[in-house]
Amino acid sequence: MIPRTLEPEVMDTVEEAVDYDSMDHSTVNRVFVADLLRFVEPAAKPVDYSLSIIDLGTGTALIPIELLNSEHRFQSVLACDLSQEMLKIAGRHLKDHELNDVILPVYCDAKRLPVAEKSVGLVMSNSIVHHIPEPMDVFHEIRRVVADDGSIFIRDLMRPDSVQHLEQIVQTYAGGENEHQQKMFRESLHAALTVEEVQAMLDAAGFPQTWVTATSDRHWTIAGRWPELD
Questions:
Q1: What are 111-139's pLDDT values in tens digits?
Q2: Closest Cα to residue 54, out of 94, 10, 114?
Q3: Residue 175 has pLDDT above 60, yes or no
Q4: What is the DSSP string of 126-177?
Q5: CA-CA 20 to 30 A from 93: which of 78, 85, 199, 222?
Q6: Helix/strand number for the chain, H first, E second
Q7: Domains by residue range for the chain, with CATH
Q8: Which of 148, 149, 141, 66 is nearest to 103 (CA)?
């Protein structure tokens, strides 16, 4: 297994934000939203929380937009990111999709969220955990804010077991992107966690280890309702 190599926590240059936003995330985002909706649907109860959804590391808000365009029952989304450049682009996307009244882009840290304890009905995130030097801080914060009977759905990259495997993933999924975009993806894979590492962090935060599974050749996913249902 290759060692974890940290990458910058915040992608906050104009080049990083523009290059990230221009990459083709459409398939990954659609799959994320489809899987999320299949997970939350069995709850089959009205969403009635102080805050319906918080999206950690929203980037340019493409996933909340995909979600709200697919499903309209959610009352509000706090789209959280620590990159001002990402949030600037997110604001333009929300205006284009006329979702400014439902999705609120907010400059905030996933390790110190500006929301009350047990106030969030759904904590979701796609590919923010690998950016955090000490991911346990994020898991403890998720534990603090998720409401009773709330849900957690988090997906992130999974660190490959060899440099050869890593390069294969880069060429398979980002081979058509520019050199800087490939570099960002490569660094993200180096910074990603393994399923075993996530299991240990879930356990330390008081969540069941069984909530995390490998869900593709490059992703793990945490899916669970709190407290754990029988």
A1: 999 999 999 999 999 999 999 999 999 99
A2: 114
A3: yes
A4: ES-GGG-SSTHHHHHHHHHHEEEEEEEEEEEEB--SSHHHHHHHHHHHHTTS
A5: 222
A6: 8, 7
A7: 14-226 (3.40.50.150)
A8: 66
pLDDT tens, residue by residue, 139-148: 999 999 999 8
Place of tokens 């894979």: 189
Tell me the C-alpha distance between 54 and 139, whole Å.
14
Rounded CA-CA distance 115/154 in Å is: 18
Q: Map 178-216 to HEC letters.
A: CHHHHHHHHHHHHHCECHHHHHHHHHHHCCCHHHEEECC
Which is nearest to 149 in space by CA: 36, 33, 35, 40? Answer: 40
What single letter denotes the amino acid at residue 94? L
